[in-house]
Write a structure and sequence with these properties.
alpha/beta, 7-stranded mixed beta sheet, about 375 residues, about 35% helix, single chain, Aminopeptidase, 5-stranded mixed beta sheet, Nucleotidyltransferase, domain 5
């Protein structure tokens, strides 16, 4: 089993070839040049020095983030290209996993940190357990002071590594005497670690087709953030003029959508119904509905147009629904959600909804249960 891996998640770029758990070749360069100028060269160097033809590679791997937006895209594009051209599988390795693997099997806490700018880092926590690298927390972007507070909860040795060490290393070591810094050779993600983890993922059946490879950024690029800041989300009561747009979003969002007539009934005839729309630049991009009966509000549906998801429109709608409920003297709010819809469940939990029960076989299209969620106001 031969795997060629690429890492371009930071300022350093590297390539490596692993065969049956043994590292055949690794090449790393951190000379300040753009990854687009390095990519083919570092791959060719690995192939030439290991004496292997690219056709004999069994799978291609890359780190998928978090990290440099541009660098990650270049690495993924190269691996996808190899996979497509040679009809070989590709393997996605989270960058923080690969970075932590640089110091495996360190017996203590492993804290990889990548610079996320604005006094933040991308990080997670790992340890060695049962002869394997174990991730203890989810990947996240976290302010450095909050990370220091979190690390302060551990008494044992903590090794830090990653490109953020050059920025925050002194601060961490001054705050926590049990912090140690990894060697300079392990500070950056390495393609050898990507390759070795990729081999494990391959054996676990987690190889992908080239067009299935997705990057994992954790948060949007600064350009996307700045663009979305310019977009003001306007929440307003739904009117008859909004029904067609709302119906389009409904059809794009659900397997068994409400009919157009149902929305007309809600707006024109149902006195218990309260519906809101979210607009960007006067275009309807999301909506939410609720029935208010006595002191209880039941959320019927919330949906955001697929092209505008990830812009906090769902947050704005849930917030507005809660405010509408309070304005109408509602004491509690309920809703049903598919247990498989983790994005919606996490959104509701963020605003205080708790799991309350289950409605068996609630969804007619699939027979899936419905999770009941409840919020006391």
């Amino acid at each position: 089993m031969r795997i060629l891996a690429i890492d371009t998640s930071t300022a350093a770029a590297s390539s490596a070839i692993v065969e049956n758990g043994s590292l055949l070749c690794e090449f790393t360069i951190n000379d300040g040049k753009k990854h687009s100028e390095k990519m083919i060269n570092i791959v060719n160097i690995a192939l030439e020095n290991s004496g292997i033809e690219i056709n004999s590679i069994d799978a291609f791997a890359c780190s998928i983030g978090p990290g440099s937006f541009t660098g990650l895209r270049l690495g993924a594009a190269a691996v996808k290209g190899f996979g497509q051209a040679l009809n070989k599988p590709v393997i996605a390795v989270p960058t923080l996993d690969a970075l932590a693997f640089n110091v495996y099997p360190f017996h203590g806490l492993i804290c990889p940190m990548l610079d996320a700018q604005r006094n933040m880092v991308y990080s997670s926590l790992y340890t060695t357990r049962d002869n394997e690298l174990k991730k203890l927390e989810e990947y996240r972007a976290i302010e450095i002071d909050n990370l220091i507070d979190r690390l302060g909860e551990f008494n044992g040795r903590i090794v830090i590594l990653g490109d953020a060490v050059s920025i925050f290393g002194k601060k961490l070591k001054a705050a926590l005497p049990n912090i140690i810094e990894s060697s300079s050779g392990n500070l950056y993600p390495r393609a050898s670690s990507v390759a070795l983890l990729a081999e494990k993922l391959y054996k676990e059946g987690k190889a992908l087709k080239y067009d299935e490879l997705k990057l994992y950024y954790i948060r949007k690029s600064q350009a996307e953030v700045e663009y979305e800041k310019k977009l003001k989300i306007d929440i307003s009561p739904m009117t008859g003029e909004d029904i067609e747009a709302v119906y389009d979003i409904e059809c794009l969002s659900f397997n068994t959508p409400w009919s157009l007539e149902s929305f007309k009934t809600e707006i024109y005839k149902n006195t218990a119904a309260k519906y809101l729309v979210a607009k960007l630049e006067d275009k309807v991009v999301g909506y939410a509905g609720m029935w208010i009966v006595l002191d209880e509000g039941h959320i019927t549906n919330i949906a955001v147009h697929p092209e505008h998801r990830g812009k906090k429109i769902g947050d704005a709608l849930v917030n507005a629904m809660i405010k509408t409920a309070k304005d109408n003297n509602v004491k509690r709010m309920t809703l049903e959600v598919r247990p498989s819809n983790w994005a919606a469940i996490n959104l509701y939990k963020k605003y205080g909804f708790n799991e309350y029960g289950v409605r068996r076989g609630y969804y007619e299209d699939s027979g899936e249960d419905a999770l009941i969620m409840w919020l006391e106001l």
